[in-house]
Design brief:
A hairpin with a 4-residue loop joins strand 1 (about 140) and strand 2 (about 145-150). This protein has helices at about 10-15, 30-45, 50-60, 65-80, 80-95, 105-110, 130-135, 155-160, 170-180, 215-230, 235-245, 250-255, 275-285, 285-295, 330-335, 340-350, and strands at about 140, 145-150, 195-200, 205-210, 260, 265-270. Helix content is about 45%, strand content about 5%. The radius of gyration is 26 Å and the shape is globular. The protein has a two-stranded antiparallel ribbon. It has 16 helices and 6 strands.
């Protein structure tokens, strides 16, 4: 009797050749994956040694815990020349703290953002291979998902535990870079009549472009989330940058032409279409900016409504002035809708506001 052992990936064209055969599915355990990751990071660490003595010394002192290996990878990144170090820190910051996975093209545009430039310079965009190389094995290209990600989920835990000083204020930095991107000259006149969304197929997979820009959809959707997490003061450099941006109505119109719905992974109509800057600040709870941007009640359309049975009248002093952020929703509505309690307090302190009963 001849018995044959065959190993293969779950490929139907192969498995159908052996009907009735006994099959055993083999999957790597978490322990297996961790051991493989340790080996990979060890090899990455050893590959940086330039002579036999240094290699032997490193072999005698190989870290045994993942956090120690991540520490070692960061030390190797910091020991690189200035340009490579800055590129690696920027790439790691974007991948580790982005609110959605980034494609290779998105990451390439992100690390090329220069606050001194007025557009995305194609000659300043580094190759994805270079970005991965300078990150000492901490970033990998996930070909199946067509995104760049951290080497392992434990690396995400590691970066989350790092202090702000160790990673140079990740969310504040990303927010500033998002706003620099949104201030490109190409967006100064707001939405154009050209097609908004186009899909581009690259060697790394498909990529959605918004008005021809790979990173525009991300920056316009998530800049405020990063700004809120970065806790900018009103007079900080980022706070001033936010205020300047929100005072630009055409750019704000472009910003909220559409949303990216993370949970459904799709483009959806924006709830903020037509909002003024202070409406955006109220919605995201950017309260320091909200205080600076709010006009006086006399500068806004005031409409008198007498609704004695209004359920909200008890929480308002005198339902009188309607502060419009656009024709259908008020700044107060937007703040309440998005559960921004502090922004609601700021608006109530600012003047007498009436909350219309409208559905979203």
């Amino acid at each position: 009797t001849i018995r044959i052992l065959i190993t293969t990936r779950p490929i139907q064209d192969i498995t159908r050749l052996f009907p009735g055969s006994t099959k055993l599915e083999i999957r790597a355990t978490e322990f297996d994956l961790t051991r493989f990751l340790l080996a990979k990071l060890h090899v990455d660490s050893l590959s940086s040694k330039t002579n036999v003595k240094a290699l032997k010394k490193a072999l005698d002192n190989l870290p045994s815990a993942l956090d120690e290996l991540y520490d070692d990878a960061l030390r190797r990144i910091k020991s690189q020349d200035q340009d490579d170090r800055k590129l690696a820190e920027k790439a790691l910051r974007w991948v580790a703290y982005a609110y959605r996975p980034l494609s290779a093209l998105m990451l390439q545009e992100a690390v090329a953002i220069d606050p001194e430039e007025t557009d995305c310079d194609a000659e300043a965009i580094p190759a994805i291979e270079l970005i991965l190389d300078v990150c000492s094995g901490l970033l990998i290209m996930d070909a199946k998902a067509s995104v760049v990600r951290l080497v392992h989920y434990t690396a995400q835990d590691y970066f989350n535990a790092l202090s702000e000083s160790e990673i140079l204020g990740p969310h504040a930095s990303i927010a500033a870079e998002c706003l620099s991107y949104l201030n490109f000259d190409a967006f100064q006149n707001g939405p154009s009549s050209s097609r908004r969304y186009t899909w581009t197929r690259t060697s790394e997979g498909e990529c959605l472009k918004y008005y021809g820009y790979t990173l525009l959809l991300y920056t316009s959707t998530f800049w405020a989330f990063h700004a809120k997490a970065g806790l900018p003061g009103p007079q900080s450099e980022l706070g001033i940058q936010i205020r300047k941006f929100l005072m630009s109505d055409p750019r704000v119109a472009l910003l909220y032409a559409a949303d990216y719905d993370v949970s459904r992974n799709r483009i959806v109509p924006s709830k903020l279409t037509g909002c003024k800057g202070y409406g955006i600040a109220a919605f995201f709870g950017l309260c320091d900016n909200l205080r600076d941007l709010l006009p006086s009640v006399d500068d806004v359309d005031a409409v008198v409504f007498v609704k004695p049975n209004n359920d909200y009248s008890s929480m308002l002093k005198n339902p009188r002035a309607l502060l419009f952020s656009h024709s259908r929703r008020t700044a107060l509505q937007l703040a309440i809708y998005n559960d921004q309690a502090t922004a609601v307090e700021v608006l109530l302190e600012h003047g007498d506001l009436w909350l219309p009963l409208l559905r979203f």
